[in-house]
Specification:
The protein contains 9 helices and 10 strands. It is an alpha/beta fold and 262 residues long. It has a domain of 147 residues: Putative cyclase (Glucose Oxidase, domain 1, 3-Layer(bba) Sandwich). The protein binds 2-acetamido-2-deoxy-beta-D-glucopyranose (3 copies). One 2-acetamido-2-deoxy-beta-D-glucopyranose binds next to loops.
Length: 262
Amino acid sequence: MDLASLLLSQLLLLPVVTVVSGETAAHPGYAHAEEACSGMLEAEAEKATVLVPAPERREEFDGGRIVDISHYYREDMPEWESSEGSGEFLQLARSMRNGSDIANFSELRLTAHSGTHVDAPGHVFEHYYDTGFDVDTLDLAVLNGPALLVDVPRDKNITADVMASLNIPKGVRRVLFRTLNTDRKLMWKKEFDTSYVGFMKDGAQWLVDNTDIKLVGVDYLSVGAFDECIPAHLVFLEKRGWCEDPIIWSWASADPIDTNMS
Ligand SMILES: *[C@@H]1O[C@H](CO)[C@@H](O)[C@H](O)[C@H]1NC(C)=O
Ligand SMILES: *[C@@H]1O[C@H](CO)[C@@H](O)[C@H](O)[C@H]1NC(C)=O
Ligand SMILES: *[C@@H]1O[C@H](CO)[C@@H](O)[C@H](O)[C@H]1NC(C)=O
């Protein structure tokens, strides 16, 4: 896995066109958004020689046609099977402050499964790994476009029965499954939590057999529930070599999405 997957994970811009119930709040994805929008802190402004307004962190572009729902990377973002979070993943390797450098160069050190990410077919199949099925082989046309946001029952993992009960119409290609993970704000907790909600193997099989879904998004670090994590992945990624199976995407966002968009 390489940097490409990280970059790709940040390029996932999905307009969410249809929503099946849920939160009413807008999506204030960035906890510090207000502070950032109001400009520099006074003390900092006094010290600065040139006053530059703080950047605006946007999640909506083109009047809401494009919504960036990727998760904001933080040091206390959870990592798979770790209680430590992501740690100091971003470092300024070379700094303009030194005088000798003409630019700032930052260095990223992060697993490819951090935050919002897509799984490469080679993630769970050695023959795909060996033949080079990395994230670069995924179809960008599948990764970008209108998506259906679906709320799943909060008291179950995503089983075949749950999938059948959702009545997702034929023809829908991209679905974000919003679960109890979002309610529990799991992406904002540093400690990895094995009780997150995800697909059970039979739920994954039901999706492959009965829907036209080609992009599956789940709101935590894995598409498969912890107890059936690998079996669910195997179902989803099995035919990847023929590009028939859904792309699985850990949307990993705990940010509520504005449900008034349509
Ligand atoms: C220049 O800055 C980098 C990053 O802050 C630091 O690691 C390095 O030691 C500095 N070099 C000097 C000569 O100060
Ligand atoms: C470069 O890094 C320094 C920290 O060493 C920071 O204060 C400065 O704003 C950065 N410059 C640019 C152009 O980003
Ligand atoms: C989902 O499955 C996990 C085990 O993978 C379990 O700990 C959790 O309680 C289940 N969640 C629900 C809502 O049933």
